[in-house]
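tool=predict chain=A
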Amino acid sequence: MAGLRLDQALARLLPEESRSRLARLIEEGHVQVDGEPAEVRRKVRSGEAVELWLAPRPADTAHAPEAIDLAIVHEDEHLLVVDKPAGLVVHPGSGNWEGTMLNALLHHVPAVRELPRAGIVHRLDKDTSGLLVVAKTEPAQLALVRQLQARTVKRTYLALARGRVERDGTVEAPIGRHPVHRTRMAVVASGKPAVAYPNSGESWDGATRAWGGDGAGVDPAAAARWVAAGARYVGGCCRVGATDIARLAATMQGGSGPVSGRSPG
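tool=predict ok
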């Protein structure tokens, strides 16, 4: 080890850690050599004592409860429906390890910690507002996932695009990750099928309204964004129908509907 740079020596001693992370820990003062702060490029010598404090990764502390206000439009012992505002990230991820809806749910309903994704069964983009259904029990989560897959619960997305659509109709296109900008969605050949319904009669101030429905599309929110070639997405929201919320709430009771798998009477 003698003669190696400090970050190189640590990388050999801790192969499970990336060299870039070790270098960052050195720069942040989490590494000392003989009791003194060290520099990344310093060479190590025989007999030196190296101390390292491994700071937790953001992902390791991401699933922590946070007292974040939630706009809850319905709640019972099986599920809750949250009106997610634009700007709120649903699930922790790269660049958003705290302050998410999942963190808020863990504070509001601590028991959902035992559920996959804290009971979240579908998502909305950070900048999309709308209603999200969250399970509070494992049977409810399984039932909700099955209903979403079977499209017995309908979701509708409203999007505004900067630009004008000259005709009504149906727009179908495969939506997937942008090949270069990985945080964006785009029309790509390898994407999943999606469908949207532009309304040329609902255009104002240079913007056009379009609906994305569950219909034949597996990603209606993304489809609604791409209704006009070259149009720039302005914003959107997701709506779960009031009748669906009422039906979900009602059929969760008494062993019918979503929990049992039997159709409500």
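DSSP finds six helices and twelve strands in the chain. The radius of gyration is 25 Å.
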